[in-house]
Design a protein that fits this description.
This protein has four helices and no strands. It has helices spanning 2-18, 25-32, 37-42, 44-126. α1 crosses α2 (25-32). The longest helix is centred in the C-terminal third of the chain and has 83 residues, at 44-126.
């Protein structure tokens, strides 16, 4: 009975692992159709194996989450690069036209300043 019970528990553990199901002492015992206390009382070595598998599953889950987060960040980076390229292109086409406009405004300012000086001179001459 003891060898069959141990074999049933090991098979249950392998089934859960192969199905990517969450492994715990209770889930292994339930899959084998046994009480979880049997693992604690009769098979402490299986308890350690199950705990090791839980650690492996937790590490794999963390790796999977990290990979998913990395993929999200890669997608965001690509999007930001595209937006940056678009802005650089707009900057390269807008800057020269803005510079030309600023030069035009300064030219108009210079002309108004000259007209202002001329108007002041005429006013002085009238006095």
């Amino acid at each position: 009975m003891s060898d069959n019970t141990r074999k049933s528990l090991i098979e249950a553990l392998f089934e859960l692992v192969s199905e990517s199901k969450k492994v715990s002492i209770k889930s292994v015992a339930d899959r084998a159709g046994l009480s979880h206390s049997i693992i604690y009382n009769r098979y402490p070595d299986l308890k350690c194996i199950i705990k090791d598998e839980q650690i492996k599953q937790a590490e794999q889950l963390k790796r999977d989450r990290d990979i998913a987060e990395l993929e999200k960040l890669k997608t965001k980076l690509s999007s930001i690069k595209r937006k940056n390229q678009k802005l650089e292109k707009e900057k390269s086409t807008d800057f020269p036209s803005l510079l030309a406009h600023i030069q035009q405004v300064y030219s108009m300012y210079d002309q108004l300043a000259e007209e202002h000086v001329e108007a002041l001179n005429r006013l002085r001459d009238m006095k």
